[in-house]
Amino acid sequence: MRRPTIKDVAELAQVSLKTVSRVINDESGVRARTRARVHEAIAELDYRPDPSARSLRSAQPYALGVVYDNPNPYYIISVQNGVLAACRETGYGLQIHPCDSSSPLLAADLIDLVQGARLAGLVLAPPMSERMELVSELVAHGIRLVRIVSAAEDPKDGSPCVWVDDRDAAYDITEHLIQLGHQRIGFLWGGKSHRSSWERYKGYAQALNDYGIAEDENLVLPGDYSFDDGFRGARRLFALPDRPTAIFGSNDEIAAGVLAAAKSSGMHVPYDLSIAGFEDSPFSKQSWPTLTTARQATEEIARHAAYRLIAELRRDADQPLEVPPNEGFSPILVVRGSTAPPRPLQTP
Fold first, then answer.
1. What are phi and psi for residue 190, nearest 5 degrees?
2. What pLDDT is attached to residue 1?
């Protein structure tokens, strides 16, 4: 079956093409009864506007861009799915744009992207969303955007965002390990260009401090948000004379790498080593044992960021849609089979 067109909608609703277009674009000046008839025809035909065609017909673009630089494919997919859900519900198209967050030409590249692809605005994922000099340059060129950022509270920096309290969730994970009886808890960083890594480290360090446990710098290792860095970091921690009894990886990929390293070293998880991750990605549920983690609603976070941006765009176009305030999300501790009390010390 061919895809229904705007002409089909107009014929079924017995109105002009221009009237259908005005209803689709939420323009004023259409009678309520006529608007209802057009919506009934759209529903009956299951008509979905083509965002690229709408942009060509209108001075207003109808597509968003998602910009990311993250080695974790599950995070990227969740962000894309969340933004795509909002776009589908509001008639916007979506363009995905991977980039190098360290590039000195990044701002120019993104400006060219928005102008060349006629994008209405951008959803910036970390770490680009946390580079305020980049954000300022994009805004100076008239680009509308919403950021997804890691923060313990609303940053209130004048730029619209959705923020995630990674610090508090990391505190909960570390506290869980401490309450199980662990005193030597390793911490494996994600990329330090990501504010989420710093926030998760701060939560870890604060929990140790609150429970009177001195932080051992030998137990804290740099790395990236990847399985390989989790595996390598774990092997380094295992080689310490007084190795940790628990390891907190900054995300589930890192934690899965730790789990692989533990098994390859003949350790029994969780009794020889407890392991915790972060984000509640498929890694956390598909491993054995399943991983204790913090459930981060990445898809929902991204969907809210897209709605925040679309609301801003519609307000600019004098269309009735209330712009929500900056919104915060708090990941929730999920205890699974990878954490348990440490084995009692063997007495001679």
1. -90, -170
2. 58
